[in-house]
Each structure stands twice: as structure tokens, then as C-alpha cells.
Amino acid sequence: MPLFDALWARQTLPRKFLFAGGIVMLAAMLFVGSWVSKRIEEAVVQKSASTVALYMDSFISPLSQELVDSGELSEIARRSLSEIFSGTAVGDRVVSVKIWKKGGLIAYASDEALIGRSFTPSEDLLNAWDGRISAAYEELDDEESQREALLGFPLLEVYSPITEPWTGDVIAVAEFYERADDLEKALIRARSSSWMVVGLSFLVSGLLLYGIVKAGGSTIRRQQEQLKAQLEKSQNMARQNVLLKQRVVAASGRANAQAERALRQLGSELHDGPAQYISLAAMRLDSVLPKSRKGTKDAKDIKRALNTALTEIRALSRGLAVPDLDNLDISSIIARAIEDHDRHTEQEVSVRIETPPIAGLGYTSKLCVFRFVQECLTNCLKHAPNANVEITCQSDTDHLVVAVSDNGPGFDPASALTLREDGGQGLMGLMDRAESIGGAIDIRSSADTGATLILTLPIQEG
């Protein structure tokens, strides 16, 4: 069965129609041909029987009227019938005659041994008693027809009702057997003609339908080829888009990494350069200015300004500074972000790491994870200081997933997609950072249900 299914699947639509439609049309042709041939045969037989019955009635009916009052024919009537069917043209065609009375009694028969005997009435005999002419071609299987069946040539068996002239009542039924050599030839011609017409009709119909299906199959095959070509073209474009996206993500990751390293270098230089010089200037300021009252006041003002500038430079340096993430694994990166958070608050943060060491996680992805955890903890401290915070980390072969959740008051996710009043980008900036390297951030929160932020990153180097 699987082999047949495979062979069938490989066939074209016209071949499938030719096979399946051919079987159906052949079966339909045999049925219709048999039915039409049968109807034609019945019509030809009935027409022949009616003609013969009308002709024979002119001989038999006058001689059978005495059966109205008697159960059998007189000797004169029998002799007359025997003379009609012996040595005459009628006798050459009608080889046997029986005249039936009610109840299946034979009142007269060419075979005198049957006279006076009773047989079970056949269906054709019963129809004749109802006033209808009945006929059967080559159906000599009744008990009383054994002699005729042995003659060896085709016979038309006709049952013709014999009626009383004045009342029209059926008084007897004449059964006669006519040689059917001409009828047999006519039936053969009729069957051949009917089968030829039916076969030709089905053949023409099948050819027309096959032509239509073949044209439709050619159209479908052409459209399939066009669709296949378009699909292949689309797949090529999709592969090119994937490669282009990978190149863009890789380029964006390298650019982000270079920018972060440059900012880290800038923060280091601010801390080690200008901050140190300002600190030195503040310490030596007292020895430069005069020891007068006015000099002391100016010294304090200048020193206060220098200390303020030093504080701002150090704060700016800390904001630009990022820990060296190249040699840290994912759990150490998350721990470093929590450590920075713990310097400013005692908010409880729990961590669940469910990922093994990831070899393919590059600097850009590590930095994105660090900034994501850092920003989420800052938001928790700002909007839900009393909430419990949980950080989970999971991974599979292709993706790293970091989630930060709290049981605080929650917020409208749409509000996170706008710039802050101080110009900061907040979560929107993190989303842009994640998307630039092929990742995504999902925000799940509503009022009074807490908030969960999920970062998903592809595991790739860069």
C-alpha cells in the first residue's frame, strides 16, 4: 500500500484522471450499455410478440370460443388447429401451441400428452390472464416447455389472451412458440448498435474530459513551476536577509563594544587626569593665596568650587566606568551588577542561575546583560523600594534568557517606551540595545501584580 501511494503521488493530474476516470467510466458504460441493451431487447421482443399474437389470434380465437362453456376443445376444433399448424407456412414458423384454461390447465397442445394436465402458472401466463400480451425470448425453463427446449433453435414464447367477442372477458390463453431466427439477428444488430452508440458516447465524453483535465493539469503544472521559482527566489532573499541581519548585528555589536570601551577609557582618563589635577590644585590653594581675611575667603570659595567640580567629575567617571566583562561569566556579571546595587540600598535580591558556562557569549551580549540587570535594579529601587526582587537566568543551545521580577505595585508597560524627563532612555534604550544585537526585551506588568522584564539574547560571539 505505501508503494502504491508513492507511485500514485508521482503521477500527473491527467494520468490520475485517465486511470481513475477510465475505471469509473468503464463501469458506468457497462452498466448503461447493459441497461439500454436490455430495454431495446424487451422492446423488440414485445413488438414481435404483439405482431405475432395479433396474427395468430385470427386463427385461434374463433376455434377457442367453445371454451366458454367447456373445459376442453371439441374434436373438430382440435383437428382444425392441427391442420393449421401442420404442413403450412404458419406451421413452419409456429412450432408448438398450447391453450390454457384457468388454474394452469392445458386444454389443447401440439403435444397431445400435455392435454388435460395442470401446471403452476408462470408470471407471463398470469399477465396474459390479466389481458396483457407477454413474451419471453429463449426462456424455456418451465416444466411444460421441456419439449420445445430440445428443438435446438431460438424460440419466441408468446402468451396471448383469448377474449369473448361480446364481453371482452378472457376465456383462455394461447401460448405459442415461434421460430426466432430473424428475431435473433435483429436482437444481435440492436445490441451491437446500442453498445456502439453507448461506447462511442462514453469514449467521446472521456476524451473531451481528458482534454479539459490535461489542459488544466498543464496550467497547474506551469503555475506550480512558477510558484516553485518564486518560492526559491523568496528563500534566497530570506537567506540573504538572514545573512545581512547577522552582519548588521555583528557590526552593531562591534560598534557598541568599541563605544563602551571608549567610554570606559574616557571615564578612566577623567578619573586619573583632570580629577587628580583638580585635587592637587585644591590642596595647594592655601599656600598660594595671601593670609589675609579676604584671601582666606577667596580660598574657601575657590576650594569649594574645585571640590564641587571634582565630585561631579568623579560621578561622571563612575557613570562611564564599566567593569571589565571580557573575562567574566554570566553569573559573575549578574553578581557584579547586584554588588553595585547593594552599595546604595539594602533591598533584598535573590538570584537563580540555571545555565552552564556559555562559550559563545561575546562582550556585547555580556554588556547588554549587565546594563539590563543594572537598569532593572535601579528601577526597582526607585519605584518599588520595599519589594522583593528575583533574578533568574536560563539558556538553551541558541538563546540566553535573563528575567528580573518584583512583587511591587507594577506599572503600565506603555509608559516604559517613552523618554524620561531628564532625557534618559531607560528601558527603551535597553530595548534598542538588545534589538541591535538580535535580542528582545519583553515587559510583563499591570497594576498591583508586580513586574517582570525578560531579556532574550542569541548566543553568538561578538
Average pLDDT, rounded to a whole number, is: 77
Biggest sheet: strands side by side, in what order?
A: 2-1-5-4-3
Structural class: alpha+beta
Which outline best applies?
rod-shaped
User: What's the number of domains?
Assistant: 3
CATH level-4 homologous superfamily of the largest domain:
PAS domain
Work out the radius of gyration: 57 Å
List the helices and strands and how they pair.
Elements: H1 2-10, H2 13-63, H3 75-84, H4 89-93, E1 94-101, E2 105-109, H5 123-129, E3 134-137, H6 146-149, E4 155-163, E5 170-179, H7 181-272, H8 274-288, H9 293-320, H10 330-342, E6 349-354, H11 363-383, E7 389-395, E8 399-406, H12 426-436, E9 440-445, E10 451-458
Parallel strand pairs: 6-7
Antiparallel strand pairs: 1-2, 1-5, 3-4, 4-5, 7-8, 8-10, 9-10
